[in-house]
Every structure is written in C-alpha cells, then in structure tokens.
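Crash report, auto-generated. Payload:
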Amino acid sequence: MHDDLKAELEQRRQQGLYRQRLITQSAQGVHPRINGREVLSFCSNDYLGLANHPALKQAMIDAIQTYGVGSGSAHLVNGHSQLHHDCEQRLAEFTGRDRALLFSTGYMANLAITSALVGRNDFILQDKLNHASLIDAARVVDAKFLRFRHLDLDQLQQQLAASNEQKPAARRLVMTDAVFSMDGDKADIQGLAQLCREYGGWLMIDDAHGFGVLGEHGAGLCEEQGLDQQQVPILMATLGKAVGVSGAFVAGSEELIETLVQQARSYIYTTASPPSLAAAVLRSIEIIEDEAWRREKLQQLIAYFRQQMLALECQLLPSDTAIQPIVIGDNQQTLDISRQLLEQGIHVTAIRPPTVAPGSARLRITLSAAHETTDIDRLVKALAGLFRQD
Ligand SMILES: *Cc1c(COP(=O)(O)O)cnc(C)c1O
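Recovered output after restart:
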C-alpha cells in the first residue's frame, strides 16, 4: 500500500499539483501570523473582517457559559438548541424566506439539497464552473447530471427543453454558484429564474460568496438582483465566509425545509454544530445589517485594486466582487509566484487543477473590508516586480 501511495504522491509533486498546508498561529485578519511570521494576507474569505470581531467573540463566550460547548446530538434528537432555532428564524427573516435550516457546513447543505429533492428519474443541471461541493452533491444521487458552459443560458435552455421532451414529469434541479468561487463573476439569476419558470426548473443558488457582501443589507445576490422566494425557491449560503463564523443554511418555503428535515441524510445523521456558533452568527447578522460601511469600503477597495492593476498589463478576470484572480496558466509558475510573494511577506494562494480547469492555474486574490489601500499598494508593487522578472 505505502509504495503505491508514495508513487502517486511523487507524481502529484512532479506535476506541480502537490498541496501543502501552512500553519496559522493567530486569529484571522489581514495580518495573520503564518508559519512563525506575520504576513499580509489576500486569501481569506473573511470578506468583512468579522472572524475576529470582539462582539462575535463575546456572543460566543456568553453562549458557552449558558449552553456549554458541544450540542450533544443531532438536531432531530436533542441537539437543536434555542440558539439554533433563533438563528434559523433570523436567517429566514434576513433573506425574506419562510424558513431556514442550519447545517454544519456548506458542503453538507449542498449534499442535503440534491439527496432530498431528486432521484433516478430526475435531472440536475449545473454551470461548469460550480464549486466542487455542488458537483459532488450531484454525484451522490442517481439523477442525470448535465453541465452547461459557464454562464451559457442558451445551452441550459437546450438542455431543459431536451429533458422536458424526454421526461415531462421529471424534476429539473438547476444549481449554480451565485458568485463563482474561483473566478469572482456572478450568475445571471434573473435569466436563470426566467428559464426555470418557462421549463419548470427548480432553481438553487449557492450564495457562499455573496451572502453578507452583496445587496443593500448584505442579504446576498438575491437581494442585489431583487429575487424573492418565488423566483429562487432554494437559497443556500455559508456562514464561514463573510459572516465570519462557520456552517451554512438553506432557506425557502415551509415545504422545502420540511422535506430537508425529513429526508436529507447529511442533516439527519450528524451532530448539530455547537450552539455558541449560532449565537455568533446571530450577532454577525446584526453587524452585517447595521454596518453597511463594511460593504461600501470593500467595494471601494475592489475598484482601487482593479485600477492599480491596469498599469501592470496583466489580464484580470471580469469580476467586480472581492474575488480577484490573476490567471497564470502553468501550475509550477503559479506556485513559484505565490512562494515568492510569501517570501516578501504577502500571502496569496495558488489555485491549481482540479479546483480550476487544466492550464488555468491562478493566484486567487481576495479582498476584505479590513484591508487598507496601502495594503493593496504593497501587493500591486510586489506583483509588478515579479511579473517584470518573468
Ligand atoms: C466554501 C463553499 C462551499 C462550502 O462551504 P463550507 O461551509 O466551507 O463547507 C460551498 N459552496 C461554495 C460556492 C463555496 O465557496
């Protein structure tokens, strides 16, 4: 066994695909301590700078004093605390949905959606650049899995029409990232909703990177594009990114949520997350709603970054979100640039296949409301130096 694995690992290393963990020795923030050294970080998904917010920490500490640490069991046994319950109601209200259901991770929430809603006679239709958890969610069920070219609504329309002809009575679950996690661009939810209405599709949106950041109050891409529960019946978002805590939720109608509770194995057969996490989420939602300046500052930093990068003549992707990747192409070259940046005290992760398509390895730069323009100046200057060298 070990020789086998060793050969495989070696091959991976030679292809520039080896993955390695760094060790963070401080709280999240734009200046974390990594491998014994303080760095300027551009790779966290803590877009609003809330992961180490004093009010969230206090909410969690207070909740631990009352509720202890562990939840003890699954939600359907006795792990569903009042804090979980309050948090679900708050999330439903915030997103303008009837109900919301908490999950321990976004990965599990996505598994829950497919496994509870579709089966052998049904269809799942997904954008090709969807997050790995959505792809895996499609693979755990027997439904026919179709993928359409990135943002290509014409191809989706053809697939919907063909599936309708083939099996008029089948369910058609259309799933998409709201903000694409490795590209930073946004799905056209209006267009998707329109197609789903025409062809009887069930639209599911994964708003992992929009929730907290987009929309006037931070309720995400649905708020930004003005889409209600009628148009987007299945809304999923995570709580470990802009919200700064951990976990995820699905929001929608009473019938949707009850179906998940009754049928979703990744909901039923797992221990509820610690109640204190729900307390921190509740506090975080308050801050997200009240402190619009965080979203505004982030938008200003995004515009500033793109403007500063113009001088470098390097192709940025068409993204107006906090995810600002620079596609390098070659795996090893991308790793080298990332390593050289780290040597200069700047942390930007190299993203390689299979997370992105072969030949499109990239630096995934993420911005946060906790950055300052001087941080961006430092990054752009370092990039300019490295690109000139190449
Ligand atoms: C991060 C992410 C997930 C997974 O969420 P976790 O809570 O980290 O498991 C799902 N979908 C998208 C688009 C993501 O970026």
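Post-recovery validation: The chain has two domains: 16-45+292-389, 54-290.
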